[in-house]
């Protein structure tokens, strides 16, 4: 392991320390999750790719009295209303539920509906996590440990190496990274690409672009995006938001995106075709691309640097709703999945980059390569990116605003909103969501 790689990963904890930021389940809801032979079934609710399939098998093997029911949905926007209903009605939730970074503030306000993991040995786990990741799972008064961190989402840019070659562009990841130091350079590269490959869009969609650029701009600027740290809506007055919106609008006006949203069925299908050539990729995205692109995409994808400097997108926590009939067993499962060993297993399976600093100098992370992505040195790429992450505060209604604004950008590409009217409509939609 080279000294540069070691420095990039070993310094990660220090650099990130200040970051702020359907139906009733077998084991949750109205079912007690038990069986005649005493076996307890625990339901785990997740979205996208957490990399838990092998970990579930491992846990069941070492806990003969436990069976795990994995209830996974494709994407966050599908998961969000279901979770809201389950927690709001007090029934239907799994024994362990995933909380994405944008959802965590919302449910922290409802923390009385979740088990205090301090009551299940949580206090001894603090050193397993980056300081900011641990802190965000705590109640403001520090008395309740509501959630334990899973992964973090440092950024790269996934690209189709074969399509770049057909377009006459460089294909090696270092040369590709040099194509786009800025988002304007990325746009120019996209125009060049589509000039040669008119049947393939350059980027998957505006949603991913907006999420990435908002977090980048907010990190460079005030440290917050749609809401300030007092939870006041500042959508129309925060230059970071306007800069990000205008950047994505340029891509929509130029017809450079496929207007798709990650993990939705059309996006999944597109990965088995030549529909788009790039995807802004947090570390966890690689697992989804591999799963849905399958044999068709093997050897065709690679990972380069992200335009605009480093950034992050996503990362999650696990929590145990009080409605669980087996809170003790659920807490133990959550502790296992978020332990350093659990995070390492998830990273190996789906490239979800760990939030445990204990792993950053482990060769299994630092020297990791991803065979599906042309042996890309993902440990170094995402470790270096993570070491430069800047803090961004997310308010409880951040997700609601984000979704409304993304819909405006989609409507631009569909011809339903004129580009000149897009910013005004986005302000209107942000205000609606913030009410």
Automatic annotation (TrEMBL):
Keywords from the UniProt entry: Signal
A Pfam family this chain is assigned to: SBP_bac_8
Alphabetical list of SUPFAM superfamilies matching this protein: Periplasmic binding protein-like II
Signal sequence extent: 1-27
Protein name as catalogued: Cellobiose transport system substrate-binding protein
Lineage: Bacteria, Bacillati, Actinomycetota, Actinomycetes, Streptosporangiales
